[in-house]
Amino acid sequence: MKYIDEFRDGEVAARIAARIRAEAQPSRSYNLMEFCGGHTHAIARYGIAGLLPDNVRMIHGPGCPVCVLPIGRIDNAIALALEHRAIVCTYADTMRVPASGGLSLMKAKARGGDIRMIYSAADALAIAQANPGRDVVFFAIGFETTTPPTAIVIRRAQALGLTNFSVFCNHVLTPAAITHILESPEVRDLGVVPLDGFIGPAHVSTVIGSQPYEYFAEEYQRPVVIAGFEPLDVMQAILMLVRQLNTGRAEVENEFTRAVTRDGNPKAKALVAEVFELRRSFEWRGLGEVPYSALRIREGWAAFDAERRYDITTRTVADNKACECGAILRGVKHPVDCKLFGTVCTPENPMGSCMVSSEGACAAHYSYGRFKDIAVRAA
Amino acid sequence: MCLALPARIVELLPASEGIIDIGGVRKRISLELVPDVQPGDYVIVHVGYALQKLDPEEAERTLQLFAEASMDTAETP
User: Fold this and answer.
1) pLDDT grade, residue A285 (50/70/90)?
2) B46 contact residues in A (CB cutoff 8 A)
3) Are A258 and B55 within 8 A, CB to CB?
4) I need a surface site. Which of A22, A303, A309, A315 has the fewest CB within 10 A?
5) Complex confidence, ipTM
6) Who among B22, B62, B66 is closest to A257 (CB)?
7) Which percentage of chain B shows pLDDT scores above 90?
8) Cα distance between residue A58 and residue A204, in whole Å
9) Distance (Å, rounded) from C-alpha B31 to C-alpha A125?
10) Is residue B75 less than 8 Å (CB to CB) from chain A?
11) Are A120 and B22 within 8 A, CB to CB?
């Protein structure tokens, strides 16, 4: 397919890898964090880590909205279906995430909850129109990519005069989380985070543009290269980061120019600003409370805010004590450093945030890399 | 979660909607976030909405960058 196949060419990848090996200085190390789960998945699936020299190391960030969604918020969504008897519409990604009491949205559905998987926010609105006698709640999750569609359906619900539709908003913001990783007090407890540079989000940046990362690059003196989700995009971004670090630069560069501009999508940004405002703080699974890292629905749209409508309060649910996701998400530990990895914690039965979706660091390593470092012995 | 695919617009429909083609699969999506698109344009599609128009010249330039990296390698022993 056009704009996909040519960005997955294995021969070109091998040549960019050779370039990275030629330019990475053996005397120093390059610890690079890819923020997005989409990049984590590409690195694991296409074996990119194996093409890099030992001193260029990829650290997997917290950029998977399913992974960082707190268990308490899934408990809230389940309560909307089982206690309030609302139709809960959700993207498929959240269905299997384990919640409290051995439940998940999938299991709540089996218990009679009317929970429906949807492809698009617009589908949730159509379900509300088709069921005027029922309350319909859209369980909205995701980064800046999924937020503009949510804003559109809230506006449309108002224009249509719908009174049975509301949104349970869990939208989170990427730049806040990147800053948090370098600044949080936990980082001091866990040790120094050895992060030299960042691969910036692909599709999030199509909406917000490259500009929001400029403050970050300057303030923290770390280079950021925005890259597409195809394997060659990731390889090229790694080469660009190595070059920046070699020459002592800390700039925002854009590898994904075919879809990302400095200002992003102005119409999408305006819609989001009209409907949403910043939350003072929001819990991220694996990271804890992160200031100004999420959005809530503005007062003017309160009629469509499920949190106000059902008076939702969220309980914090702790992960297993042995879970190392917090350290993994901050780049301090690797999935195999965790005692739970691959034993009690697997993609079928995830204990921590990094195992929850295929884009999480642990799930990606479990699916594509866990046998890579094991010595093969003939019996 | 943030996965999105480049797709070709084949038809514009009323109310800012359109039909896209991804490798032979056709789907109706919203074009509300990308006001200035025409049939034949490629857009990045995510959860039923086009998020951004794809710039074919920039795509060419990026492929050229990959090629240059390869040539540099050929010169390096």
Assistant:
1) confident
2) 145-146, 149, 203
3) yes
4) A315
5) 0.91
6) B62
7) 78
8) 20
9) 17
10) no
11) no
The percent of residues above 70 in pLDDT, for chain A, comes to 97
Average the pLDDT over each of A223-232, A284-293, A330-339, B63-72 and give the range with the smallest value. Answer: B63-72
One domain for residues A153 and A106: yes
The answer, for B17 touching chain A at a CB cutoff of 8 Å, is no
**Per-residue confidence (pLDDT) for residue A200, from 0 to 100:** 96
Same-domain pairing of A29 and A98: no
Give the closest-approach CA distance of B69 to chain A in angstroms. Answer: 6
For residues B30 and A150, the answer to whether their CB atoms sit within 8 Å is no
Q: How many CB atoms lie within 10 A of CB A143?
A: 25
Identify the band that residue A339 occupies on the pLDDT scale cut at 50, 70 and 90: very high
State phi, psi for A22 to the nearest 5 degrees: -70, -35
- Indicate if the pLDDT at residue A377 is higher than 80: no
Residues ≥6 apart with Cβ < 8 Å to A44: A364, A365, A367, A368, A369
Asked if B8 is an interface residue toward chain A (Cβ–Cβ < 8 A), one would say yes
Fold type of domain B5-75:
SH3 type barrels. (2.30.30)
Write down the domain spans for chain B: 5-75
pLDDT at residue A309 in the model: 97
**Two tokens, residue A211:** 């500009």
Please state whether beta strands A30-36 and A87-91 pair in parallel, antiparallel, or not at all (unpaired): unpaired
Examine residue A108 and state whether it is found in any structural domain, yes or no.
yes
Instruction: Say yes or no for a CB contact (<8 Å) between B1 and A19.
Output: no
